[in-house]
Amino acid sequence: MVVEEQGGLLQDLPGRCVVVLQVNCRGEPMPGPAQALAVKYPEWFKSYRDFCSLFRDGYVKDTLGDVHAFKASDGLIVCGVLAQVGTGKNSRATSWGAWEKGLKWLKARVPRLGGPGEGWKVRIQGFQDEGHEQELLRLVKDAFEASGVDVSVRRG
User: Fold this and answer.
1) 135 burial type by CB count under 10 A (0-12 exposed, 13-18 middle, 19+ buried)
2) Model confidence, pTM
3) Which of 7, 16, 99, 102 falls 20 to 30 Å from 109 in CA-CA distance?
4) Dist. CA 18–CA 70, nearest whole Å
C-alpha cells in the first residue's frame, strides 16, 4: 500500500523503518532532509561521502540510480537514491530514470529485511514542487503498489 503523508522524513518514525531520499552523486548533502540526516547520523554522512568518492574523483562515470544503503546504530536504515549528478543551479535536475532504478532495487530488497511478522515500513521523502511530487508518487506506486510493502511518501 502506498500513502501520502505530511511531515518531515525523520518525524514520528515507526519501528523497523527504511527512510529513502534523493541524494546527489557527489556526496554533498543538500539543505533539507539530507542535511538533517548528516547532523543526526554523522556516520551515515561519512559512509555516503565514501560511497560517492569513486564518482567524485572521476573513477566512475555514472552512478545515477545506485542506492547508498546504511544501517544506523539505532536500527534505522537510510537509503539514498543517487538521482542528481551534483549540487548547484546547473546540476539540480532530478533523474526520473535514476529514481525508477533505485525503487526497483529497494523493492527487491525490503521484503527480505525481516522474518515472518517483521514487516518493514518504507518512508520516502517527497518534493515540495507539485509536479515533482506527482511524478515521484507515480513511480513509487508503479514499483510498490502490489508488493505488500507499506510505503509512505512524505511532504514536509
Assistant:
1) middle
2) 0.88
3) 7
4) 10
| Among candidate residues 156, 155, 140, 154, the one with its CA nearest the CA of residue 2 | 140
- The dihedral over CA atoms of 92, 95, 100, 104, expressed in degrees to the nearest 10, equals -60
Give the model confidence (pLDDT) of 57-72 as tens digits.
888 778 889 999 999 9
Provide the angle, in degrees to the nearest 10, between the axes of the packed helices 130-144 and 96-109. 30
Q: What is the dihedral of CA 72, 77, 83, 86, to 10 degrees?
A: -10
At 87, the amino acid letter reads T
| Domain segments of the chain as ranges | 2-155
Distance CA 123, CA 102 (A): 14
| CATH placement of domain 2-155 | 3.40.220.10
Q: What percent of the chain has pLDDT over 90?
A: 42
CA distance 23 to 68: 9
* Residue range 89-121, pLDDT digits in tens: 555 578 899 999 999 999 988 877 765 556 788
